[in-house]
Amino acid sequence: MSIALTEILSGKQNVALGGHIRPDGDCVGSCMGLYLYLKEQFPAVQTDVYLQPIADCYKLIEETEVLRHEIDEKKQYDLFVCLDCGDVQRLGFSAPLFENAKRTLCIDHHVSNEAFADENYIVPDASSTSELVYRLLDPDKISKACAEALYMGMVHDTGVFQYSCTSPETMEAAAGLMRKGINGSEIIEKTYYEKTYIQNQILGKALLESMLILDKRVILSYVSRRSLEFFEAKPSDLEGIVSQLRQTKGVEVAMFLYEVDFQTYKVSLRSKESVDVSVVAKYFGGGGHAKAAGFTMKGTVHDVINNVNQQIVLQLDE
After folding, report:
1. Pairing relation of β-strands 211-213 and 218-223?
2. What's the half-sphere exposure (Cβ side, CA atoms, 13 Å) at 119?
3. ∠88-91-94 over CA atoms, to 5°?
4. Are 113 and 89 in contact (CB under 8 A)?
5. Residue 119: enclosing H or E segment and its boundaries?
6. Whole-angstrom distance, CA of residue 196 vs CA of residue 84
7. pLDDT tens, 120-169?
8. Burial 110-134 (b: 16+ CB within 10 A, else e)
9. pTM higher than 0.70, yes or no?
């Protein structure tokens, strides 16, 4: 189902945009792309964006300094647009604004999304939420700054247009954005490939200490809180590790864990062909896509790994 942005905004005086916790490239790109478009094309509508602090590389996108990291729970918006977020809880600190808004809209591509807003534009087959935002906009009115944000989002959720979610429509959308005069290669290099020294150190540690299990069909690695503190690394510095693990020849599933609190782990899963990791993630209260999903679980690292392995085996042995 598609939606008409002009109709949804009709009569709205203020709008809030929000994305999921630990915002990645698609989350930032879709939120900022829509924000820039609304600011330029609907100047009478006050628009605010709520996200947790973003990685420095994403600040290549214009106006990321407007991002709000705290809320006034008494404030009520005419419309809250939830982007790239599978459920209300994933909104994190901005969830109260969503629940208090007069009207809500969800734009998302997670297969686990159960259409929790008043209006929903959910397309699980889409490459990214940024691509869905692009489809909602008048292409003739997209500015260069807006195009840069949406292009970044598409780049990140397609693995630079390598993943199976990349469709002909995705490439056509990317071409349309490139025609706005953006420097696509710079966006890819600065926000996707370029890593800090700390990020490379953590990546090296994760690769060096990785293990092959389940007849070498699964590769896993984890980083403890102690290691994060030692390297002075943030969770955003771990982005991309699980995708790198997935590139290991012969493996079907990559699993990467890092400790977010005492015996509490954020688990990221990536797969190639035969395993739908969204099923595994949903079993443990998370969500995502068939080939990319995640969740949070409590327990020792060995307990977490063993529990996840049991669910992966169910599909590997089919």
Report:
1. antiparallel
2. 16
3. 110
4. no
5. strand 119-122
6. 26
7. 999 998 999 999 999 999 999 999 999 999 999 999 999 999 988 899 99
8. bbbbeebbebbbbbeebbbbbbbbb
9. yes
